[in-house]
Amino acid sequence: MVEKIVRLTVNFSVNEAQMNAFKSIAAQMTDGARSEPGTLGYEWFVSRDGKQFRLAETYVDAHAVEAHFLGPVVQELVPKLAAVSSVSGFEVYGDPGPKVAEMAAGLGAVIYQYWLGINR
């Protein structure tokens, strides 16, 4: 059911001279997310100038996104990523559950509840 899916987008600005470290940590995060049950997508996008990155994450439901937030990708690797970049935007689409909603809001996320749509 599409209304149970939770999506996140996080925008990053990489600190000067920290690009290699950022890319290495992002690759580690992707490898970690690959083995997390309920992760449907974990994709990185880069701006044309190569300075801005967007992470798009998709989870099967609130339980999967909560497991991600409490797991090593977020708990161990996100602090390392924060040392070499800054978050310039964070949005959550769907119901991430109360624990993740609180954690995400503390990080400045805007949460959009599911309203209407189709998914094929």
How would you characterize the overall build of this protein?
Helix 1 packs antiparallel against helix 3. The longest helix has 16 residues, at 19-34. The relative contact order is 0.24. The chain has a 5-stranded mixed β-sheet with strand order 2-3-1-4-5. The chain has helices at residues 19-34, 62-70, 72-84, 98-106, and strands at residues 6-14, 39-46, 52-59, 85-93, 110-112. With 120 residues, it is of the alpha+beta class. The chain has one domain (2-112): Alpha-Beta Plaits (2-Layer Sandwich).
Task: Give me the secondary-structure topology.
Elements: E1 6-14, H1 19-34, E2 39-46, E3 52-59, H2 62-70, H3 72-84, E4 85-93, H4 98-106, E5 110-112
Parallel strand pairs: 4-5
Antiparallel strand pairs: 1-3, 1-4, 2-3
Helix pairs in contact: 1-3
Helical region count?
4
Q: Major beta sheet, specifics?
A: 5 strands, mixed
Low-confidence stretches: none
What is the string of helix and strand elements? EHEEHHEHE
Radius of gyration: 14 Å
Overall 3D shape: globular
How large a portion of the residues is in β-strands, by DSSP E? 25-35%
- Name the quaternary structure: single chain
Order of strands across the main sheet: 2-3-1-4-5
Return the CATH architecture: 2-Layer Sandwich
Calculate the terminal CA-CA distance, rounded to whole Å: 11 Å
CATH topology: Alpha-Beta Plaits
Given this structure, which CATH class is correct? Answer: Alpha Beta
Number of structurally distinct domains: 1
* Number of E-state strands: 5
Summing up helix and strand content along with how strands pair, one would put the structural category as alpha+beta
Task: Round the mean pLDDT to the nearest integer and report it.
Answer: 95
Helix content range: 25-40%
